[in-house]
Amino acid sequence: MKKLILLVLLLVLLAFTIPILFTIPFQGKAVAGEVEKSNSMELENQISEEAYAYSSYGEIKLYHAKTNTVETIPLDTYLYGVVSAEMPVDFEVEALKAQAIVARTYTIYTISNSAGKHEGADICDDSTCCQAWISKEDRLAKWEEAKREENWKKIVGAVNATKGKVIVYEGKPINAFFHSNSGGTTEPPVNVWGGTGYPYLQAVQTAGEENYSQYASEVTLSKTELEEKIRQSHSDFTINWQEPECIKILEYTDGNRVKTVKIGNIEMSGVEARTLFGLRSANFTFLIQEDSVTFQVKGYGHGVGMSQTGADSLAKEGKSAEEIIHHFYQNVEIISW
Predict the structure, then answer these.
(1) How far apart are CA 332 and CA 201, in angstroms?
(2) What is the DSSP-derived secondary structure letter of residue 283?
(3) Full-prediction pTM beyond 0.90?
(4) Would the pLDDT of 167 be above 70?
């Protein structure tokens, strides 16, 4: 009888023990896998969302010109809006990365050297004053719906891949000017704004810019329109259209732009002529017709610093963002700020 009772107890014990023995390893493996997967996802999120620890200016105060408001925003989040506003998203990734580094440098330089320029803010979103910026919502709305997510990821990826990278000359952030298309040759700033210039901004040539729509343009003005535009700034202006050299280019800059042009009795800089006549750049020739004057223009912008189409052209040749930057800015370093 005792043997029978012991046998029954043994069978009962085995009935409870065997499932546990088979279940524990599998449960343990499943839980470990879930924990490992969870930790991996958290790590990926940390890597993608972790803000770069800037030594200064991790956040900036952005003045919105249209709404007259100031927004505090992380620097790299601000740069998403700058890069997507300043450079076409279909440009090469290395060109977009170069633009991100240049825009970050320009931002930090502006904050450091333009105190008080924007009351209560570090920088503004007006391209005629600082650099262009657009909100994510407005940027997405301007893109084709099917490409919105892909395009935004490309912009964010370009900025995030360059986190903290800043261009310096002798240890200080440079005034990182940039423009749309140089017409083949950039311009030292002294020829545009005067002053002593910056040693890292020299005239450099870039092949391939003629392949972009920004390279060539024309502006035609009637002779009457041209006279009226000049008289807005020069009340004593006169011109005799019968004279063979009533318009004459007197001097060119290092970047082959018009340095001085004489129109009638007035001499003016190429930069002034560009502004008066609404030209895309100061690299122009002209054709006097019976009742009008046509200006044939190369390039788009002031021509100083990095040409955006030039950057894209170099990227198409296989150049990295760093190589692009060293092409346009002389004797500089790219460091983590």
Answers:
(1) 10
(2) -
(3) no
(4) yes
